[in-house]
Amino acid sequence: MGSGSQSPGGLEYMTGFGNSFESEALDGALPQGQNSPQRCAYGLYAEQLSGSAFTMPQHANERSWLYRLRPSVRHAGAFSPLPPGLMRTAPCREPHSLPIGAQRWNPPPMPEEPTDFIGGFCTMTAAGDSDSHSGMAAHIYGCNRPMENDYFFNRDGEYLIVPQLGGMRFHTEFGIIEAHPGEIIIMPRGVIFRAEPAEKEARGYVCENYGARFVLPDRGPVGANCLANPRDFKYPAAAFEDKEKPGRLRVKWGGDLWVCEIAHSPLDVAAWHGNYAPCKYDLRVFSPVGAVAFDHPDPSIFTVLTSPSETAGAGNVDFIIFPDRWSVAEHTFRPPWYHRNIMSEFMGLIYGQYDAKAEGFAPGGMSLHNSMLPHGPDADAFEKASKGEFGPVKLSHTMAFMFESRLPQRLTRFAAEAPFRQESYADCWRPLAKNFSGKTE
After folding, report:
1. In the CATH hierarchy, which top-level class contains the domain 288-424?
2. pTM, 2 dp
3. What CATH number was assigned to the domain covering residues 5-283?
4. Where in the sequence numbering do the catalytic residues fall?
């Protein structure tokens, strides 16, 4: 392809979460029978990208082979530090005066100045330690311009990107991938990309996972079907850039941002094969399960993806959604019950209304209910759920989510002092009166 051109392909996808794929933008670019032949077709270079240690068990080994115009050592020159802006990395214990307790924020305003995807990152919470591959961070982003001749990769963790307002398009080493509200993108650690809003501007949430890579949860007694199914995860087809234009490569490494000048696009992979690649998933094809007689199941039945920890069942991070579904349980308080939980819960609303909040939790907003701190439905939601009829109810056009971790999530100073934080959030529980009468109903 000529200078500044892109190979054929565009938005083409392959399906099957965790599978090994192969894709080529040039016929014959993929070698057959071996990974690194003495001479690759078209004068390409063979390079392996490993997302796991070489000696991991076979089922957990993650790697892809890339066949590219230049090896990536040509994409990295002398690095210089960059100011991190409002991006933070765990461990993060920034001083602020906000005490512990339930927190909630209104939707953040869109940036007024020209801002790209990485420049628009604002960290809300952080947990664990990125250097020890434990924990997570919850970010929000707002952007209104593309990353032109500007590229990025994150060494510290993988990104789970949740668009909320407007879509995002990512040009990656593996091809092009695009997601809109109601979809998510998983961007593995170390994958180079440039991003652009699919429309004029975009806003959303990002979970930065420092720990084990996201996988599908074990279904246990649920069996082989329902929840998220592997066939619904979509991977990009190979599409490369042969572009000789000056640009820069930004890197997040050890919690710091770095930059180096480059003379060409690093998205020059003409073919690839393996199981370590970005993918997208439509949350609306998640098949929920629930109670069909009485009582309220645990929210774990809505887990889409989990980052396992060394303790079985205690997720480093769980990604949980609350989508459209029927509520049919009889003689049951249907919203989430009042509870205190070892897990910390960062929650966001993509669209619609969440059934445990009567008002104040708007699309684009978020909340934090930290480890062992009490929370539950507000007074209005309690009143309606306690006195309502028990017929089947369809919860429609709603999509809320949680980034849930076994580790406590610590607020950044930005989150604590944000002008869109709801200072009176706890007031929603004040009308909960003592109803005790000393008599059975």
Report:
1. mainly beta
2. 0.94
3. 2.60.120.10
4. 296
Compute the distance between CA of residue 143 and CA of residue 203 in angstroms, rounded to an integer. 7
Judge if 5-283 and 288-424 fold alike in CATH terms. Answer: yes
Beta bridge partners of 326: 394
Helices of type H across 173-217: none
For the chain, which residues make up each domain, given as ranges?
Answer: 5-283, 288-424
Point out which residues pair with 13 in neighbouring strands: 236
Q: Determine the 3-state secondary structure of 62 from DSSP.
A: coil
Q: Please state, in angstroms and as integers, the Cα–Cα distance from residue 170 to each residue in 11, 45, 194, 295, following that order.
A: 10, 23, 6, 43
pLDDT in tens, 421-440: 999 999 989 999 998 888 87
Q: How many whole angstroms separate alpha carbon 268 and alpha carbon 4?
A: 11
274, 303 Cβ separation under 8 angstroms = no
State the greatest distance between any 2 C-alpha atoms of the chain, in Å, as a whole number.
Answer: 85
The answer to whether residues 71 and 35 touch, using CB atoms and an 8 Å cutoff, is no
> 121 is written with which tokens?
């990152």
* pLDDT tens, residue by residue, 100-134: 999 999 999 999 999 999 999 999 999 999 999 99
